[in-house]
Amino acid sequence: MRLDERMTAEAIEQVLRREADAAYGTARSARLDGRLNQLAGWLARVAAGPLGPTDEAPDQSGQPPQESPA
Amino acid sequence: MSAPWELTAGEIVAGCRAGELRAAEVVESFLDRSARLEPAIAAWATLDPAGALAEARALDAAAARGDLRPLQGIPFGVKDIIDVRGLPTEAGFAPYAGRRAARDAAIVAQLRALGAIPLGKTHTTQFANGDPAPTFNPFNREHTPGGSSAGSGAAVAARMTPAALGTQTAGSVLRPAAYNGVTGFKPTFNWFSRAGVLPLAWSLDHLGLLVRTSVDAALLYHALAESVPESAPAAPRIGLVTDFLERSQPAVAAQLEAAAGRLRDAGARVEPVRLPVELDLLLAVHAVIMSAEVAAVHAEALNAHPDDYGPWIRAEIEAGQLIPAAYDIKARRLRRRLGAVMDRFLAGFDALLLPTASNTPPGRESTGDRTCQAPWSLLGTPAISLPTALSPDRLPIGSQLVARRGADSALLALAGWVESVLGLIPLPELDS
Predict the structure, then answer these.
(1) What is the ipTM of this complex?
(2) B92 near B80, Cβ under 8 Å?
(3) Which of A15, B56, B98, B384 is deepest in the core (most CB within 10 A)?
(4) Closest-CA residue in chain B for A12?
């Protein structure tokens, strides 16, 4: 599934459901109904989150770990 | 004179250092109480009476030679995803039964060196996720003790131990603290080493403390961090975050507003504020990152033992495996941006004030609501929950203070002042 900020939560849920059917079988996938609905809502919210290419602080994950006092 | 099990961690250290208490009698007292109450509370996955008593006697012998430690004689419980040498780390997962740790997790080793004594392992929800633990809430057995650090919260509330270690990926230290009527402190992300702790989601997992008072939280924190306590400001600036009040049960919101009024009367500058970012976006970013990481941590073990996983965590893993990389990466980019905005916002306050949980503890089929805790796990800020109120149906309500990253000492000092103004609720008697 490509990231598209115009995609609704319902449309994302349909894609997730198809992928769950393929990955886990329809019986198991049916048990994920509520979770897929919830996840689709979160993904739609993240996709629509305002973010330009220079809007964020640089990624620090290549830096040495922050020194902890403990 | 109080029995040792009635004492806070600070009172135990003071008694031991004054020569009025021995570590062995303290440990015996908490072990006796644990044995008496365990059938009703189910807080302990493993108790280690022999090991704890041997360690306490060794500490007493050292004390007789003048070797007194900063946390002398404080028993503590350890959530059962954190290694304690010689004891099993089972994480509520049947295939891990009897899986004994060869060495202590870093924080357990630190606490031992400081004079504290591990009593045993406390029940956790499976792998610190959402399937309820077997533990009961000491305030009312029909209600959840929260999760995932259920046993740690309940054991402190039942005074089976004066302190316990917990972990938090969404709300698992703060929420059990609120639901069990005790104090919970989650320091800045990565402040306490997680070596020897089973991961749930690497970029969100925090270690934390469950204790009786903020004074105890400060005692343990400063001993672990080798830091010096600060003083609370004379007129602290506190932001009462209305976004969370709007999501809370009326009784919870009313208690927080009453607490804010009392703090104002005591000299704090309390002002209603709104978050500078959307709460729903914070929660969505947290949930996507957490689900993706939980899925990655557990992919292989789920393939090997699918039927041993609880329904909640299994669904989270299976759904999380479907998250496309582009969404996961965007969630992580949003976290950095939201973190920068929130850092600037938090710099304007000594602390934010909000409910620890949006509700009083619900029934035992769930571990409760993470809305008021997950943002601080996402952002890595320090947060503390104080047990400041009881609902009309006698269930505990927590007040939460949150500060900017790295301001742990200042937050603990402010929490001490807030505690002195608001007071703490009494813990349940349980003996009658």
Answers:
(1) 0.95
(2) yes
(3) B384
(4) B323
